[in-house]
Design goal:
The structure is a single chain. The protein is α/β, with parallel strands linked by helices. Helix content is 37%, strand content 17%. Helix 7 links the parallel strand 7 and strand 8.
Length: 425
């Protein structure tokens, strides 16, 4: 089967949960004998340096859509990746805003992407983005004719919902649009001209839900919907039940992008109530002003010397594995979360886990009783109690967590996904 995975960005140096899911599924599908190719933008790509700001040099922003946009191609672990320069349709568009939208959001036009998909002729177009990129995938599928030896006249279309759209708080949803507020949305003129309907995700042949909230929302509205949890490579993390007691001076680990959704502020404030604890924050900065807020609050509370901003680490890298091995407990205090793949990693690494009881994250923990301590999001006293309980019952939690992690394997999940492709009528 020829499978095209389409996503907004894929950077191995500035990594997010969606990229991790897509990359691991693609590797597992390739290992199973499928022909897999990834299509993305150059956002945050290490070789793109100034490529994404080229459109700002044009006096006419619309002209950038017709500029040559050849893909930039590389092969990683035998998988070909094609990247195209995104065009963000607002004016004015300074370089600083381009960089901000590269990190999170942006809803770009991606000239050249559609042409590349048509030329490759995939059997399945699996989209991992919304809005204009999703619309483009639908248009490509409906305009593609396969060679005579193919059984279908057009590729199957599947979309994955990664972002927890069913439970994003209103305040945070508004904050995502804040960078472009007050700018001319010239892209809407083209949307109307193209006649894009934006019935996303309903117009796709199949819907894959990372979070159960989305699954519950769409399964009654669409004939082909599946819940596919995230996975983990348990052999890579190699966790085991520790026999030694935890030290009084311990390290809390949180692996998540620096973003208000992840609520690392709750952990900074937790340190002020527990002088013997340190905090290591691993993840890319998607909201720079939030990092500034975290640093400012840490200084106000006198805990700045106990908070380490590690930055983004490549999934599966020796550096990331070392962070898990050096930590004493893993805590994820998210305000909302469709799943929480990092909890699987913490379980596989043999760490006790405390997590906020929200969305798919709460259901993941509830599905594996005894593997994590949960607390209501935003309740500082409950967070403190959950962390203390996790540390006090570390042996039991780690044992249950290791057992839970083994139920999630990328090869198993990838096989389920291919079966889903085949069953779409």
């Amino acid at each position: 089967m020829r499978i095209a995975h389409v996503l907004r960005r894929l950077s191995f140096d500035d990594w997010g949960g969606t990229e991790q899911v897509v990359w691991n599924l693609a590797k597992a599908q390739k290992a199973a004998g499928h022909d897999v190719r990834l299509f993305a933008t150059t956002a945050l790509w290490r070789f793109s340096a100034t490529k994404n700001t080229e459109s700002t040099k044009s006096l006419c922003p619309l002209c950038s859509l017709w500029q040559k946009n050849e893909p930039r191609t590389e092969t990683v672990e035998g998988i070909e990746i094609l990247r195209f320069r995104p065009i963000y349709p607002w004016w004015p568009m300074p370089k600083k805003l381009v960089a901000e939208l590269d990190r999170k959001g942006g809803n770009p036009f991606v000239p050249g992407l559609g042409k590349a998909l048509v030329e490759w002729r995939p059997d399945v177009i699996h989209c991992h983005a919304m809005a204009r990129i999703a619309e483009l995938c639908l248009r490509v599928a409906h305009s593609t004719t396969q060679p005579p030896n193919h059984q279908t006249t057009e590729p199957q279309t599947v979309i994955s919902l990664h972002g927890g759209g069913a439970n994003v708080p209103t305040v945070e949803a508004k904050s995502l649009k804040a960078p472009t507020r007050g700018r001319l949305p010239w892209g809407k003129l083209l949307d109307y001209a193209f006649g894009w309907t934006r019935r996303i995700p309903e117009d796709f042949g199949g819907i894959v839900c990372v979070g159960e909230d989305e699954y519950e929302r769409y399964r009654a509205k669409h004939p082909h919907v599946m819940f596919l949890p995230n996975g983990v490579d348990t052999a890579l993390f190699g966790g085991q039940v520790a026999t030694a007691d935890k030290p009084n001076h311990l390290t809390i680990l949180c692996v998540a992008r620096i973003d208000r959704q992840k609520n690392q502020l709750a952990l900074v404030e937790h340190l002020s109530r527990h002088p013997g604890r340190k905090l290591r924050l691993v993840g890319p900065v998607t909201q720079p002003d939030y990092r500034e807020e975290l640093e400012r609050r840490a200084a106000e509370l006198g805990v700045a010397d106990r908070v380490a901003f590690v930055g983004a680490l490549k999934p599966g890298s020796p550096e990331l594995l070392a962070e898990y091995r050096a930590a004493d407990i893993f805590v994820l205090p998210s305000r909302h979360e469709p799943f929480g793949i990092v909890v699987l990693e913490a379980w596989a690494a043999g760490l006790p886990v405390a997590a906020s009881d929200v969305g798919g994250l709460g259901r993941l923990c509830a599905a594996h009783p005894g593997a994590a301590e949960v607390f209501p999001s935003g309740d500082s006293a409950a967070l403190d109690a959950a962390v203390d309980a996790a540390l006090g019952n570390a042996h039991r939690l780690v044992e249950a967590g290791l057992a839970a992690a083994h139920e999630y394997d990328w090869a198993v999940l990838a096989a389920r996904l291919v079966d889903f492709y085949a069953n779409i009528c």
